[in-house]
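Hi there, hope your week has been kind to you so far. No rush at all, and the record is pasted right below.
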Amino acid sequence: MTQTRAALRPTVLTALLAALLSVLLAPAPASAASLQEVTGFGSNPGALKMYRYIPDGLPAGRPVVVALHGCTQNAAGYASGTGWTALADRWGFSVVLPQQQSGNNLTQCFNWFEPADIRRGQGEAASVAQMVDRQLADVSGDPSRVYVTGLSAGGGMTAVMMAAYPEKFAAGGIVAGLPYGCAQAAGSPYVCMYVGATQTPAQWGDRVRAARPGYTGPWPALTVFHGTADYTVRPANMTGLVDQWTDVQGADRTPDVSDTVAGHPHRVYRGPGGNAVVETYGLTGMGHGQPVDPGSGETQCGAAGAYFLDVNLCAAHRLGKAWGLG
């Protein structure tokens, strides 16, 4: 037995050296893309920061997704927590990530409730629109395939962008957000968040139409995700969004599809042309946050954490599929 071990030693050493050399001499893996800050993207009247994610080797003519973080969050955390950057690598699109500054809002909420920030050509809305223009120019993106989404205050600002700049966006995804003009309709952002505003569908729709006078369409399609146990932004706001955008789109408020996805109620409202113009996911038992489904499966994305809630459904993946990104 001693002789056998001695005879094996050179063979073992040779194998170890070969393995070590193969690691040392192997070509370095391709570097992954990273978040970049962009300055000088326009007059920036809302004093926001612009970040973006561009997958390595992204060809021209690809879609652009604008992703707006929630209160207390930042661009980098929202980019990774939602799964948007991983999906950008997988499907081939770029992501624009506006970031609020504490000088504008102490808790880093986008100011979805401030009249000066929600009007076309003004404040934060104009800053985000300038980011879109800069991104399209820099990556030669497809202007007909620009999408906007956001969580909470970012969801409120998503509604702002859809209303004030409808010609820039093919569709929007609002997560735990609010209808356009909700704070003004309710008389206070807090009443809007905790109770909801009382408006008829036509009144809701008029608020959107007034944001872009004379615009005749097409209007962006809307997908909404909202937890049934959200006590920060009440689910009544999802009802307000359905009323608002079905009215804008000329659709009725009877869903054409009523089913479940991953156990959660799902509704689709079709417009006069038969296309889906409003879609909702009522996330059973979910509180305030972004739905994620961590894992490596085909439909999985995102990472669980504060305001990133694992409910076996990833909002970013569902939006990407609805928008034809992947």
Remarks:
- Residues 257 and 326 are 22 Å apart (CA to CA).
- The chain has ten helices and twelve strands.
- Confidence is low (pLDDT under 50) at residues 1-31.
